[in-house]
Amino acid sequence: MPRSELKRAYAAPAVEKTFEVLEYLATHPKGALVSEIAADLGRTVGELFRIIVVMENLGYLRKSQTTDRYTVSYKLLDVAFRATPSQDLVRAALPEMQGLALETGQSCHLVVPATGHGMVVAREEQPGTRGFSLKVGTIVDILKSCSGQVILAYSNQARVDRIVREVEEERHVTVDREWLAERREAIRLAGFDSRPSPITYGVTDISFPIFGFDKDVVAALTIPFLSLIDGSQKVEMDAARDMLCRTTERISDRLGYQP
Q: Which domain holds residue 214?
């Protein structure tokens, strides 16, 4: 059967429209109204409205509560990660994270950028009886957290601008861009970020970037280093930092990154 006839025989208009919407929004990171999407795609609002609502209900699209603009949600990336094992960040990272937790006696967690925040997508708890860790699915402040600032430090300016706009829209705040630029530069010079946890006594967050095959930063791997009063932690903080650095280098290598 000729390709043109095959295409007509297996046409699925609703599916075609769904992917049209996704591809359109992929080029509009600030989002778009249903009317704008319809006009630019040469469709009517009636053709797309139900499809967009279903995509929102399924979690693939996110509707701003203040502007009614739709953007693609993190769920699409999550499905893509799980559907493509060779590019799967979590699968590449988990074996290395397990080794890191055993070697350091400290927990670690993997953070990726989501819409206006960071999200923990994997964690490995330290093997002992005492420790500190974040749960998978935890939302972290991408502007103030150690993980978030590492991701921002190694992101290109266009991506940083988009994330800052998302934060400002969601929280109704104005981000100090000069302060953020200074933090990004300092982290790039150091190659990592480390500072006392803003929420937990005795914990120092240490975070390094992970890069993908396209040389873009894809995540930050963080150890919330727990210092014990009796000094009985398995390794000292400097040693844990060095181990974390080597771990992120190996994960990046697994993802195809070439420095």
A: 84-254
d(CA 129, CA 106): 11
The domain that contains 151 carries what CATH number?
3.30.450.40
When pLDDT is averaged across residues 206-218 and rounded to a whole number, the result is 92
**Entry pTM:** 0.66
Measured in Å, how far apart are the chain's first and last C-alpha atoms? Answer: 47
In this prediction, residue 197 carries a pLDDT of 79
Of the candidates 28, 118, 20, the residue with the CA atom closest to the CA atom of residue 64: 28
Q: Return phi, psi of residue 177, to 5°.
A: -70, -30
CA distance 35 to 14: 18
CA 169 – CA 206 distance, rounded (Å) = 29
Is pLDDT at 163 greater than 50 in this prediction? yes
